Each structure stands twice: as C-alpha cells, then as structure tokens.
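Milestone 3.1: sequence recovery, worked example.
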C-alpha cells in the first residue's frame, strides 16, 4: 500500500500502481485519499502540492463540519481547487456520527439490511446524495493534476467514492476491497485524531470501537448490492447521468497509458 507520510494526517495514500482487469495499472499521483486535512504542516503541503502534484481537493464532509473546523491550511494555496460535496443530508447534524444522524441512519439501515449497518450506511450515501457521488468522480476525472478525496476519517465516505472510482476504471474487486480495508492499519491513529477535535470528539465513541474498523465483507456486500440492483457500479453511475464519455475521461485520467 502506497502510504503518504505526512506529519498531521494519518490515513493518506496514493492509489497508483493498482492492477486492472485489462492489464493496465492505475497511474501514481492521479488519485489520492486521506483523512481530515485540517492540521497539515508546511512540510505536508510541500509534499502534497510540490512532490505529488496535488491540484484538486474533494471534501466529502458536511457543511457543518467544514464550518466548525474552519479554514484548512491547503485552502490558502491558490493553485489547489477545493470542491465540497457532502454525501450525507445536511439536516442530520454536524457529522455522520452525530446523535441525530446515527438515529436516523440506523433506523433506515436496519430497514435495508440489519446484518451490516455500515454497508447500509454506505448505500444511504448513494440514496441521499447521488448527484454528489457523480460530481466527485467527474471532479477526479477533470483534475489537471492529482485529485485528493477526503472526509473526516478517510474511511467511510471516502471509501465509498474511491471504491466506485476504482471499480469504474476496472480495478478488480479484491484490490478495491484491500484498499478499503487498509485503513484498519491506521484506525487507532485515525480515532485519536478525531478525539482531539471538538467537532468530532463527542461523536466518535458513540459507535463501538469494532464498528469503526473496516471489514472486507462490508465493502464486498456494498458492491454486491450494486451488482444485484443496478448491474454494478457502472450501471448505478449510468442511471445517475455518468455516461460512457464520463467513464472514458475517468479511465484516461487514472490509468497509465
């Protein structure tokens, strides 16, 4: 796993050098993922912008999260475009772990499938904000340099968008799932970061610790539901206006020539 070593983010990695079903590989420095970028050091900014070519940040946090956390260091970098695309309803509290959000999402998740609530939460992102999922992938495809997708932990909301992007360009499912599960290697560090922030400290421990750790069966089940109900990730995307031209642009962006 191509971890990106940063002083003040703990779940950052480059999604280059992944195999695809056609024999191509994903190109380095095209798609990055991370936890919250709120505390980046000057050295972190140099690493991301100057060394990795970051030009575009796709922020999946809610509007309230962004307001409460305030400006992040990268927002002062003029060469980096910031695109805010929340994947949760804006009426459900400050974060996707807030009391109101958990109560509402748990009720809806149990109605979908009580066997894996995290998987059901992920399906909720697609139900609640499909236009932002699609726009996130279009933004990745249109980035002039590296695009970085992040939320708070870089695990769930980021995990869904990244899994859909990688699947759309032909990365095999086991590789997509392995990337998702890799966050588990850093989960204790991720949770410590969240507990240090007033925005997340009250919410992070409302979920049992075991529920924070990504499980392979959760992502497998999520993608299998898309297979069953929509003909796969590409089928779901097509239903929501992300057509073949969009897929081609995404592949051109993410795959090595």
């Amino acid at each position: 796993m191509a971890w990106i070593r940063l002083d003040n983010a703990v779940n950052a990695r480059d999604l280059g050098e992944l195999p695809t079903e056609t024999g191509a590989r994903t190109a380095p420095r095209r798609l990055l993922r991370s936890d919250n970028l709120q505390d980046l050091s000057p050295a972190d900014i140099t690493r991301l912008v100057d060394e990795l070519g970051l030009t575009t940040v796709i922020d999946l946090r809610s509007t309230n999260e962004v307001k409460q956390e305030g400006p992040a260091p990268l927002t002062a970098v003029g060469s980096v475009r910031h695109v805010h695309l929340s994947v949760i309803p804006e009426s459900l509290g400050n974060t996707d772990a807030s009391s109101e959000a958990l109560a509402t999402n748990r009720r809806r998740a149990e109605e979908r499938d009580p066997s894996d609530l995290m998987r059901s939460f992920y399906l909720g992102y697609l139900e609640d904000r499909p236009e932002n999922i699609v726009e996130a992938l279009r933004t990745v495809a249109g980035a002039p340099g590296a695009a970085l997708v992040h939320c708070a932990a870089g695990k769930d909301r980021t995990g869904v968008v990244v899994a859909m992007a990688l699947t759309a360009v032909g990365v095999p499912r086991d590789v997509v799932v392995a990337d998702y599960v890799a966050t588990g290697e850093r989960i204790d560090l991720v949770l410590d970061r969240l507990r240090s922030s007033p925005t997340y400290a009250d919410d992070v421990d409302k979920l049992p610790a075991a529920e924070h750790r990504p499980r392979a069966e959760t992502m497998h089940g999520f993608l299998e539901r898309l297979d069953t109900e929509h003909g796969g990730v590409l089928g779901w995307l097509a239903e929501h206006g992300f057509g073949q031209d969009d897929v081609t642009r995404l592949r051109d962006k993410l795959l090595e020539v």
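The radius of gyration is 17 Å. The CA atoms of residues 68 and 102 lie 19 Å apart.
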